[in-house]
Amino acid sequence: MASVSTALQSVSEGRLKVDGTDPIYNDWRDDLVRDGFAVIKGAIPEDRALGYADKMLALAESFGLGYKRDDPSTVHPDKLPVINEKGMLLNYGAPHEDFVWDVRSEDGVVKAFEKVYNTEDLIVSFDAINYGFSNRTCMPANKPWPHQDQDPAKPGFRCLQGLVNLLPNGPNDGGLIVCKGGHLLSEQFHKDMINEERIPAWTPEWYGYTEAGMKWLEKAGLEWVKVEAAPGDLIVWDSRTPHYNVPASEKQDRLAIYTCFMPVADATQEDLIRKKDAFEKRLGTTHWPNARHVGSNVAKRNGSEDLVSRDRPLNEPKLSERAFKLTGIPYIKAN
Ligand SMILES: [Fe+2]
Known about the structure:
Layout: H1 2-9, H2 28-35, E1 37-40, H3 46-62, E2 88-89, H4 98-104, H5 107-117, E3 122-124, E4 129-132, E5 147-148, E6 160-165, E7 175-179, H6 186-192, E8 207-208, H7 211-219, E9 224-226, E10 234-238, E11 243-246, E12 254-258, E13 261-263, H8 269-280, E14 300-301, E15 304-305, H9 321-326
Antiparallel strand pairs: 1-10, 2-4, 3-13, 4-12, 5-8, 6-10, 6-12, 7-9, 7-11, 14-15
The structure holds fe (ii) ion.
InterPro entries: Phytyl_CoA_dOase-like
Organism: Microdochium trichocladiopsis
Pfam families: PhyH
C-alpha cells in the first residue's frame, strides 16, 4: 500500500489536464501530454505477458474450429471464432476471460491510470481483445480507418485509452499507429473542419478523418507514428489523438488487450447498474468504462447468428478485491 500512497502523493491536485498546463513529471506522463500517447515499459513483467499470450491463443484454439497456432494455414475465418477485420474478438464472453481480467487488474496497469486520474476509485471497460494474426491472407482486409474516439462537440481531455501488448511488436509488426501531437490541435481542427461532411458513425463519440481531414493534419506538420512495444508494455493514448491499427506483419502475431479506465465519479448510478448487468451476463462494452454501449455474446457470421455460441467465458474470471472494485459494483448505492 505504501507505494500506492507515495505514487499518489507525487501527483499534483486533480487529474492530468493534457492541455499544456500540466507539471513536468519526468516520466511517461510527459510523453502523453506532449505527444498524445505514451508507452509504459514493463507495466506487466515479460514472462507473465507471454503467459497471457499463450492463454489468448489457447482461447482461439478452444472453439474447436480448426485453428492451431503452429499451423499458419489455419488462420482462416472458417477455423476461428468471429474476429472482425480490425482483429477484435468481441463476443463469446471473451471480454471476461480469466486472463483478460488478470491483465486489467495487473498492478502496473491500474497504477498507470491512477496516476493520470489521481484517484484509486476507477472503473474499467469490458472491451475486446485483439488478434493480429501474422498470416492473414485469408482474413478480411483491414483498411486504414483513422479516427479519434471522442465527440468533437465535447473538447478537452476526457478519456485515456490503453492496450497491453503481449508479443514483440516492432516497427513493421502491425498494431497501433497514432498521429503524434494531434490531440492538442483537435479543437482547432474541428473549428476549421466544421463544414466538412462527417463519415457516418454509430456513436457521436467517434470521428473519422476524411481525405481533407488527413490533409489538414499533414499541413499542420503532424506525422503518423507506428507505436513499438515489447511484451508487457502498456500503450496509452488520449482519445483525441488520431489513431487506427495496421495489420500484423507476415511473421509476427500481434496480440493486444484493451484496457481503459475512468474515475467512477465520472459514471452515473444508472451507468453502474447497467455495467453490473453487463458484468453478470459476461457481456462486452466499448472502450468507455461507463458501459454506455453493451455488446452481445452472439457473434454474427456472414450476416447470421454464429452456430458456435458461448455465453460464458471458457475460463471464468477470479476477481481480486481490487479487480472487483473495477467492475463498479461496490460503488452502487443501496436504495
Ligand atoms: Fe479507436
